[in-house]
Amino acid sequence: MENKIKIAIQTKGRLNEDSMNLINEAGIGLSVGRRTLVSEAKNFPMDALYLRDDDIPQTVADGVSDIGIVGENEVAEKSENVVIAKRLGFSKCRLSLAIPKSLDYPGLEFFNGKKIATSYPGILKKFLRENNIDADIHVITGSVEIAPGIGLADAIFDIVSSGSTLVSNRLKEVEVVMKSEAVLIANPNLSKEKKEILDELIFRIESVQRAQGKKYILLNIPNEKVDEIIRLLPGMKAPTLVPLAKEGWSSMHSVIAENDFWEIIGKLKKAGAEGILVIPIEKMIF
Ligand SMILES: Nc1ncnc2c1ncn2[C@@H]1O[C@H](COP(=O)(O)OP(=O)(O)OP(=O)(O)O)[C@@H](O)[C@H]1O
Ligand SMILES: O=P(O)(O)OC[C@H]1O[C@H](OP(=O)(O)OP(=O)(O)O)[C@H](O)[C@@H]1O
Ligand SMILES: [Mg+2]
Predict the structure, then answer these.
(1) Distance CA 203, CA 197 (A)
(2) CATH of 214-280, one of 3.40.50.1110, 3.30.70.120, 3.20.20.150, 3.40.50.11890
(3) The CATH number of domain 5-92+181-211 is 3.40.50.10950
(4) CA 14 to ligand 1 center in whole angstroms
(5) Ligand 1 nearest atom to the CA of residue 72, by list position
(6) Of the ligands numbered here, which is closest to the C-alpha atom of 73?
(7) What is the pTM of this model?
(8) pLDDT mean across residues, the chain
(9) How much is the average pLDDT of 80-101?
């Protein structure tokens, strides 16, 4: 058996760039496959197959590729036998029912006897069945939001992110059916060797994800303020403290969440910190 893993990546579209970036940040050299639809990683036992996202769950289930990066919505729609090996945190969206803005919404019974346009008939059918709603599903592959406006359907079921496509088409979101993000999926019957390669990939992805939104901070502090400042900056285990050449001062190094940064910085200055440097972190390994 070949000691290499095959990963399916979307050829072009919303998932492509973030998928390629993630693989590259994991230290794996993959060239972009616009025309070559298969490429070999330079320094990792992996080949990439570039496919339409619709085809990725089936390709992974059949073992044509071993793993793949795809939206959770496609995984749910296709109901193929694959496992979610890692949630990836990008391409976040939801799948929602929406109706014309001008109509009152009494609740799910609104959809009884109505026609709903969607590119996700599998997920919608299951949702309607579970809620005892009898509606007619009209499948279209794109531009779903224009369906009510042109008299093709009474309502839609589609991807919503910012909601601006709904607003432009005078629709309102009335039910969120599922939340989705990009996921790394895997064939459930990988060989031991391929499973080991997948585990190494997941380990690298987790190191990259951990570093996202985190900063390395260095600051000079008066020694008598060490305890007070440690309480503000707990760090990974404990902040590193190095004596400065200047008597009575130390340099402190730690990690902070980017979101907490502006709040903490004010408190640090108040406590007497000086020369504060904030530096990006590429990877974090525990
Ligand atoms: N507006 C959005 N915001 C965030 N994520 C989105 C948005 N639209 C789609 N996605 C996610 O990205 C995935 C891919 O979207 P894209 O529009 O590239 O699909 P596609 O047109 O079906 O591509 P393909 O040509 O590969 O079939 C979707 O399945 C969904 O998970
Ligand atoms: O809530 P919003 O932020 O407006 O995003 C939702 C829209 O994004 C996607 O379409 P996309 O922009 O990929 O266009 P396409 O499906 O027509 O290619 C999706 O099909 C929705 O139409
Ligand atoms: Mg598609």
Answers:
(1) 10
(2) 3.30.70.120
(3) no
(4) 5
(5) 31
(6) 1
(7) 0.89
(8) 94
(9) 98
